[in-house]
Amino acid sequence: MSEVRHLFLVILALFATACTEALVDKTVPSTSPAGEQALVVHVSDGDSLIVDLDGSEQKVRLIGINAPEREECFGPESRDRLQTLLDDQTVTLVADIESTDQYDRLLRYVYLDGRHINEEMVRLGNVMARSYEPNTAHQEAFDDAQAEAIDAGVGMWAQGVCAVASSLRIATIEADAPGPDDENLNGEWVEIENAGSDPVNLTGWSLRDAESVNRYSFPSGIEVEPGEAVRVLTGCGDDSTSGLYWCSATPVWNNRGDVAFLLDPAGKIADRYEY
User: Fold this and answer.
1) Cβ contact 39:56 at 8 Å
2) Is 15 helix (H, G, I), strand (E, B) or coil?
């Protein structure tokens, strides 16, 4: 019996290894596409680098993905994974439609030995797929890779890693305010409801978009009663138990599609709403 059990464990281990490798290696090409050759000198987080390009240090933002911030759940792990992959490596940088972003960072797909690192980071659950138009040449592949990561429960999608059980959920988002969005900020809102049987205090909770640039922290002492809902309006106003105000200077929710995350006080995801 012991020999049979040993053989079973060996087969199981080989199967697990094959599954992990399958997530990483999806018929990886043997060579990288044509692009700029650069040396990675620093990994800032899971979606940004500093490289030496032709003797000049340049900041690089990986296209089509969004990593958790370093203080958020899985932020350190995301950075560490990218650092393990790329630190001190010579990589190929490939541009899309736009060459730089508003912060003068190079927008690039990053390849190492034929491996598409942007896509690999998504497939391993280390970052989220995020469309940044018009730079969307590989977005379908990134979305497919994220679906695989969620189904496989790897990285940040592993059970209990960055999610928490909660009765709170994002019920709906009004992303397209009547009229010009920037002239009607309170016509844009998110509604959060309590589907449980106990009140939930929102002290320490937060709401953010897919880019994690736009963040809202709930005021202390606000409770959502069972079966009740509260709206977070993008513009300014006086907070009440039914309406809270982000007081953002600009629209938050992208009319063409976005993802909202409701985070508990520990930064774990209580709900995710994609439209």
Assistant:
1) no
2) helix
* Candidate list 105, 123, 208, 231, residue with the active-site label: 105
Alpha-helical runs (H) found in 132-244: 139-152
Classify strands 206-208 and 259-263 as parallel, antiparallel or unpaired.
antiparallel
215 a catalytic residue: no
Q: Give domain 26-157's CATH number out of 3.40.50.10070, 1.10.3720.10, 2.40.30.20, 2.40.50.90.
A: 2.40.50.90
Question: Smallest Cα–Cα separation from 272: which of 126, 173, 201?
Answer: 173
Say whether pLDDT at 8 is over 50: no
| CATH fold of 168-274 | Immunoglobulin-like (2.60.40)
| Catalytically annotated residue among 61, 81, 208, 231 | 61
User: Which residues, 6 or more positions from 38, have their beta carbon under 8 angstroms from its beta carbon?
Assistant: 51, 52, 53, 58, 60, 90, 91, 92, 93
Active site residue 69: yes
Residue 11's pLDDT is 46
pTM of the model: 0.74
CA pair distance 181, 251, nearest whole angstrom: 6
Mean confidence (pLDDT) of the chain: 90
How many alpha carbons fall within 13 Å on the CB side of residue 83?
10
Tell me the residue length of the chain: 275
The residues near 210 (Cβ < 8 Å, ≥ 6 apart) are 66, 128, 130, 258, 259, 260, 261
pLDDT digits (tens, 9 = 90+) for 76-94: 999 999 999 999 999 999 9
Give the start-to-end residue ranges of the domains of the chain. 26-157, 168-274
Query: Over the stretch 93-151, which tens digit does the pLDDT of each residue have?
Result: 999 999 999 999 999 999 999 999 999 999 999 999 998 889 999 999 999 999 999 99
pLDDT of residue 101: 95
